[in-house]
Amino acid sequence: MPAQAEDWRGWNVHPDGYPNSVALKDFADEVSEKTDGELNPKVYNNAVLGDQPDAIEQTRSGALDFGNFNMGPMGPIVPETDVLSLPFLFTSVDQMYRVMDGDIGQRFADALAKKDLIVLSWFGSGARSFYNTDHPIEKPDDLKGLKLRVMNNDLYVQMVDALGGNATPMSYGEVFQSLKTGVIDGAENNFPSFDSSNHYEVAKYFSETEHLIIPECLCVAASSWNALDEDTQKIVRTAAENAATEQRKLWAEGVEKSREDVEAAGVKVNEIDDKAAFQKRMEPIYQAFIESHPDMKSLIDDIRATQ
Ligand code: GTR
């Protein structure tokens, strides 16, 4: 236990009520309770402590103590995690959980630890799909000429380029206004984020490309982690694992609800008949990635081999 009561500051991009926000709040409460108030994590929602790339850096340096980070913007900092941003890598959310909960997930956690981020548990973020203000996407050519916001990772720029669109990396908080003013025509995300960010009010076409199934971590700054004694570390880790179980459950329950909500608000959701056409466009991205990171080929193969 730390000698004095300590307050931990944690970063979260989502608003109150979002599955991750609920789970993070319960994580914080469990830690405070089990440490008898010696360690008090506090979660700051809505990215008020900075946008995601900045918050990752702040956590690495110990300016922030913890955060719930997506592996997309993690790529520029921890190159191994770029593997997780390869489009259509995972075939289902369940497969992604099996991968991340096993030895492969540990390999990613080790890579993050080298950059001063301690992974305590893995959250899900469903499948991401494209949405836009103009028309449904049914085939890759339907993306031609669309200006689309992507998260901060060059692989997403390559992905959108390969589909004929124009990628604009931008922070999450700027997307709503940019959609509204026509700076961008669309973006890509999962149903709960499309819903909670209000992007659905402007972008009325959501097309289920499901091109990205990407994990998120509950991560602690190495310096904050190392300052804890072993018993406290155990409490924190258990609380983080409980939070992941809860987040995954709330997620599974919430996705359908978000989908219904946006449809009720007038969004046209379409399934994609031929996902193979989108996948085929990604082949050069895989080739180039493996050429520049030959050491990561086995990681890709191991993920694909996980049923
Ligand atoms: C959300 C994800 C966030 C963030 C955001 C974005 O679905 O949970 O961590 O990555 O998307 O698009 O920036």
Written account of the structure:
The chain is α/β, with parallel strands linked by helices and 307 residues long. The protein folds into two domains: 6-124 and 215-258, D-Maltodextrin-Binding Protein, domain 2; 128-212 and 266-304, 3-Layer(aba) Sandwich (D-Maltodextrin-Binding Protein, domain 2), CATH 3.40.190.170. It has twelve helices and eleven strands. It has helices at residues 19-34, 52-61, 93-101, 103-113, 154-162, 175-180, 191-196, 222-226, 230-264, 275-281, 283-292, 297-305, and strands spanning 6-11, 39-44, 66-70, 117-123, 127-132, 147-150, 166-169, 186-189, 205-213, 216-221, 268-271. The strands form three sheets. A five-stranded mixed β-sheet has the order 2-1-3-10-4. Strands 8-5-9-11 form a four-stranded mixed β-sheet. The chain has a two-stranded parallel sheet with strand order 6-7. Helix 5 links the parallel strand 6 and strand 7 (166-169). Helix 1 packs antiparallel against helix 9 (230-264). It is globular. It starts with 5 loop residues before the first strand and ends with a helix. The mean pLDDT is 97. Residues 13, 52, 70, 72, 125, 151, 172, 189-190, 193, 216 line the site of beta-D-galactopyranuronic acid. Beta-D-galactopyranuronic acid is lined by residues 13, 52, 70, 72, 125, 151, 172, 189-190, 193, 216.
